[in-house]
Structures are given as C-alpha cells and as structure tokens.
## 1
Amino acid sequence: MQDSTKPSPSALPSVDRLVADAALTPFCQAYGRPFVTDLAREILAEARARLLAGETKSVDLEALGQRIGARIEALMSPSLTPLFNLTGTVLHTNLGRAPLPAEAVAAMAAVATEASNLEYNVAAGKRGERDDHVAGWLCRLTGAEAALVVNNNAAAVLLLLNSLANRRQVAVSRGELIEIGGAFRLPDIMARAGCKLVEVGTTNRTHARDYAAALDGGATLVFKVHPSNYEVRGFTAEVPTAELAELARAAGKPLAVDLGSGSLVDMSRFGLPPEPTVAETLKAGADLVTFSGDKLLGGPQAGIIVGKKALIERLRRNPMKRALRLDKMTLAALGAVLRLYANPEQLPTRLPVPRLLTRGESDIRAMAERLRPELARCLEGIAEVGVAACMSQIGSGALPLETLPSAALTVTPIAAKRQRGAALERVAAGFRGLPRPVIGRVRDSVFVLDLRCLADEDGFRAQLELLDIIKA
Ligand SMILES: *Cc1c(COP(=O)(O)O)cnc(C)c1O
C-alpha cells in the first residue's frame, strides 16, 4: 500500500516545462538546449527517486533549476586541476608525480596548437622518426648507443619483454618479482608480454650459479629489476649488474635492467642518497635499461629504453611500439627537461624535482614559521596550529627507506578525545575543499602539512581565510 501522505512523482514538472523556465534560459543560450534538457532529465529522475524514497516532501521548480545550474557549472569546470601536495611524498603517483619546469610547458604549448615536424625531417624533406627528437639527448646523457621512448615505464618493460622473449623464458630473481601499486605486478606483465617466467634463487638470496642454471635451462633473457619500493635486509645476496652481465654475455643472451626511477645524474652530488644511474648501469654491462620519465628524472610521464642499437631496433620494429608511442606534447616536454641536464650543477635551481628534493630543512621551517600565525588565526577555536620537524619521502618507489628532514605545519583539532577522529576528518576535508585543494596526511591524531613541496606560498596563504567553512 502506498502512503497517501507522500507527494506523488506526478507533482514534478515535465522536462519541457523545467527547461523552459526563465532561470535556465542563459544556460540554454550558452550550452545549447539539448545539453540542458539532458541534465534536466537527470535532475528530475533524482528528484523522483527521492520522492519515492520519502526523503523529500516537496519539489519546487526554483530548487530544481538551481540544481541544474550547479550541475552545469560542475560539469563545465575542468575535472583535472592543480592542488597543493603537502603529503610529504615528493613524487606522488596519485598527485601527478613530477611538476614540470617552465621550459617544458613552453615546449608543449609551442607544438600543441600548430603543426610540427613530429615525424618529418625538415632538412631532408622526407619522413622522420618521432623518437629522434629525444634519442640524441638520451644517448648523450647515458652513453647509450640508441634510445626509444614509450608511454610509461610499465609500457617500456612490456615492449622490451615482448620484443626479446615472446614465448621464451626470462630469468628473474625471486627477490625482484615486485608489485608497484596494484596494477603493475612483474609476473603479470611478464605473462601478458608472452614470456615464461623462470624464477631464480630465493626471496632473500640469489647467486650467480642460480642465473647460470636458468641460462643453461634455456632462458633467452636475463631481467634484473630494481626493487624500488621495498628493501630486503639481513641475510641477503644479489648478483651485481657487472657480474650478471658477464654471465649473460658468456651465454650469448642479453641482460636488461629495469631501473624504475633511473637517475641521469648521481644524486649524491646534491646530498641525496645514492641511486644507480642509467650510465653506470650501462657501463656495468646491461644491454638495455628501462626507466620512468616522471620519477627522479623530473620530466613528463614516459618510459625510456636505452642501450644496444641492435636490440633497440628489435623493439622499434615490434608493432606494439606503435600502440605505446609517445605523443608530441610529451616528446616536447621530455626534450626540454633533458636539455636542462646539459648542466647538472644547475638542476637544483632549474628543475622542480631536484629543487624540491634538495630544499633545506631550515628554509622549509622558516616558511612554516611564517605561515603558522596566519593559519592559527584562521583556525582559531577549531584547532591548535604548530610547527614540527617531519620527514619527507622521495616517493614513486625511489629509495623507499630514505627520508629527507623537513618541516610541517601541524593542525590539532580542539575536540574531546572521542570526537577527535571526526574533528580531524572535518579539518582534512576543509583543506581539501579549498578552491585549490590542500592535501596533507593524518598522523597520530594530528593533521600534518609537510611544506617541502609548497612552492607557491602566496597562493597557499591567499585561500586560508576560506577555511572558516570548517567552523560551520
Ligand atoms: C615505477 C616503476 C615501474 C613503472 O613505471 P611507470 O613509469 O610508473 O609506468 C616499473 N618498474 C619499476 C622498478 C618501477 O619502480
């Protein structure tokens, strides 16, 4: 039996009646009647569902019109927008990884709106190769014979494995069968690339003789993976690249190394923890090396493969390369970033990733001290604001156990112990709700904003007043 006190859905206006309402006329003019009609239908369906569920009693035409207006505004604003990454993880995959330098943005803009020589050799007047726009620089910076670029490092690994070992055996140490975020698990990629995985050694110890046995057993490729996001400690053994290269060479098989982050320069020159460079890995005897464009390198999302010319040629001829190729804007950005590497000394001032990673603790703390009183004023009565030492992480699997001393603004909600959790969530949501969302992290019942990655101090300050919404 239907409850007769419930308003019936027939009380709702028709779609036409709603769209004809004067309040929607400007939207019809700006976005076209069919689009507004679609949204009117959506909003009416939602209102009908709420009426039937007994969640609302009355429906008023004005409110429906406002809801349509709000939905249009939300749809018409870009979905992908900038935010402040104050999580303390510099290369945060969910937050877009490496921020790009102005040179890269200018290079992208220049080719975005005009025709370009993407695959055209202007001097010769004939077809060119798109990767040539960056291959020369990659070879110069790594000492490689040849280079090739694809959409990301996962694609680089897929292309490499499929090109060199389709339906063949690939030897990988059990200690390196990693997962990097749910979607990239080496054994799965290997299966999709058509390879038969030969697990070598044990989780904690792999010896040269284990690889030798796999090669004797018919492995066609030796694949070494930088276990970027974890570290095996204690009673461990791995075979160094140079020794592995010798073994593979003796067996007449190539050695490929997935470096993950892959630095182009030794980061320890800037006081950062050492990470094997691409050049060192090639020098140690790797035939091919793969790495990301948007991790430590500090460029756009890309997968880079460098090494022996004959092997790179095999990868290039794989039809998969066509499906995984880079677009012109990424090539333009990558080219601009690689040119900055011509002078490594200047990287900490000119390239955002090294700049953020090398930022001194005292600088960051001074910024926190400057911002603390202003934030405290905006959160008066809601939370205590302090400055505390903290540790930043490099992120994206690079140097998982290494942290960088930094400083944070700490926001501790004023709330009874039992309401602390809800109060913290309200504070975090208030920061996320700002026009340019601020993303921090909650630790030990405190909302922490690591300021290492705060470049636009004024932009951050300018929207603090809006935090009143937390009070409401
Ligand atoms: C990050 C990483 C990948 C995946 O690289 P993307 O550029 O994110 O696709 C592959 N292998 C290793 C070792 C990594 O660290």
Note: The mean pLDDT is 93.
## 2
Amino acid sequence: MAGRWRNTLKWSDVTSEGAYLDRRQAMAAVGALALSGIAGRARANEDGLAPNTWDEITRYNNFYEFGTGKEDPWHNAGRMTTDPWAVEIGGLVDRPGTYDLADILSGVSLEERLYRLRCVEAWSMVVPWVGFELADLLNRVGVQPSAKYVAFQTLHRPEEMPGQRSPILDWPYVEGLRLDEAMHPLTILATGLYGKDLPNQNGAPIRLVVPWKYGFKSIKSVVRITLTADQPLTSWNAYAPNEYGFYSNVNPDVDHPRWSQATERRIGGGLFSPRVPTQMFNGYAEEVAGLYAGMDLKKLF
Ligand SMILES: Nc1nc2c(c(=O)[nH]1)N[C@H]1C(S)=C(S)[C@@H](COP(=O)(O)O)O[C@H]1N2
Ligand SMILES: [Mo]
C-alpha cells in the first residue's frame, strides 16, 4: 500500500515496523520501538490519534440496517452478501455505468488513513482505514460542470438486513455532500481497516469516510453514487431536520437540541472511557475550514 499522505499519520508511523498489532500488543512492543516509532506514537497520542483496537472498531457500531443496538451489526451483518458488488455511478457524469467493485479498485491505489471518527451521539474513535480518495473515482467517471452535489445510497436488501424490515428510517439510507466536499483529499472511500478487508458491520465492501463530519455522513455499503445539480435528500436530515443538518460538520459550538456537542466520550479505556473536548471540524479545521468561508455554521449546521 504505497500512499500519499496529507497531514495525516499512518498507522505504520505509530508502530515499530508497521506491523498490525492490537493496542495491548502495541504496548508490549513499546520497548522494541525504534526512536522514530516512539516519536510517532507520542505524536499520535498528543494529536488524539491513538488508534482504537480492532475489537472496539468492529463491535461497537451504528448500522441501523442491522438493528439499533451497538452490537447488533456485529451480530447480524455477517449475512449480508458483499460479493458480487457493483456501484452504479450516474447523473451528471461523462461515463455513467454500473461499475464492478474490482474495476473500481483496479484504477486506484489503496492507502492507510488514520482518522478520528466522531459520532453525532458524542462518542468517538480513531480508525486506521484503508481506502482511496473519492476524487480519484469521480475524476475517472468525469464530473460535468453542472454537477454541484454528490448523492450516495446504501444497499437495500431487507432479506439480508433485518433493520430494513422496520420503519426506523426511510430505506434505503441515503447521504450527500457538496461537490467540493466530495472532491476534498480527506474524503475517502474505504475498503478496509487495519490492513484487512472491511468487516460487514463497518460497511463492507465499500463505504464513505468524511472525517470532519458527524459519523452518519459516512454512509456504509454504497451501491449508488449520483452527481446532481440540487442538494440531495439525506436520511437523517429527512428524519429530523432540526437535529441533523445537511452539512453536519463536527462543531463543539453548535449543540444538538437534546445534548451538548462540546465534549465526546472516546471509546476504549474500559469503563472509564475518557471525555475529551470536541474539536472544530473534528480536528481537521486547517484542511477544511476554507470550504465554509463566509458561511454561518450555526444556521447551516
Ligand atoms: N448505511 C448506513 N451507514 C451508516 C450508518 C447506518 O446506520 N447505515 N450509521 C452511521 C453512523 S451514525 C456512524 S457513527 C458511522 C459508524 O461507522 P462505524 O460503525 O464503522 O464506526 O456509520 C454511519 N454510516
Ligand atoms: Mo453516528
């Protein structure tokens, strides 16, 4: 996985030789760390980028298609068929079509991205994703000048997704980004984590990751991408527009109507998951604040 890195740390930067270790093993290996590894780990901790364990990332999930409990996806998502998988790309593009996942992946270089994930429910994790920039795919299909937004849709298969047999949300789950957000180099399509294929509960085989927005924008198990001129409908915004805005940028100064967004509970550390301050744009302000210059982020939350 050769990778270009933009202001982000690689998991291999924070371990001895880029070996994929769980946190306990990583701690045990600290004595063997090269000097650069120690510096990397220290920096990772300082930046709030100490990765969560595989078990934390794959057993504490939101994937309402498999139930609303945090362990429901871990229990139920195994039955989702992820091979074959195709993504239909259409709307305002030069080369619309139904692209097999293998075709999509043959044209990109996968890389690691260690990102904070901040759920709107005020918990967070740090995840070592494997993926590629969404912009690479959009450029390949050719975005037409009239396109201003990108709409995404999750698989709709109630026979494999028990949650879709209940009217929790208006299925299928849909999300959307402004085109400049979609083209931003931090925005990726992830196909793996910790160097392995994405587990179903994390959105296999391909899901969006937008690290400066609340987690629900990072739509899982994507089957359709549509370039549009108008702002697309999004599931949580349709469900409760006063609670979940289209933008949903992480913002400690804009509370959810029912709870504060000033702090978050970092998953891990046992019963005493530490509460830490929430950062503007989830810590990615330097990279993305320019996208929103002049916008009233309290109105367009
Ligand atoms: N299709 C779909 N995508 C989804 C969700 C969902 O319920 N269905 N939950 C979202 C929410 S609220 C969060 S916090 C993240 C969680 O991603 P993770 O389980 O990989 O940590 O996925 C998002 N993507
Ligand atoms: Mo979330």
Note: Residues 1-7, 15-35 have pLDDT under 50 and may be disordered.
